[in-house]
Amino acid sequence: MSQLPEANPANSEFTHVSMGTSTKLATVMRTNGEFLSTVLADNH
Question: Which of 2, 13, 31, 33 has the smallest count of CB within 10 Å of its CB?
Fold first, then answer.
């Protein structure tokens, strides 16, 4: 039982880090999408 109080902050931190990673990934994907759109537009 003594491990539960320690696990909760760790889980919260893990969730926070995961959200931050997802945000960064979404930004990278959007940037890549804009880059690809520009390249495709230049090719046409």
Answer: 2
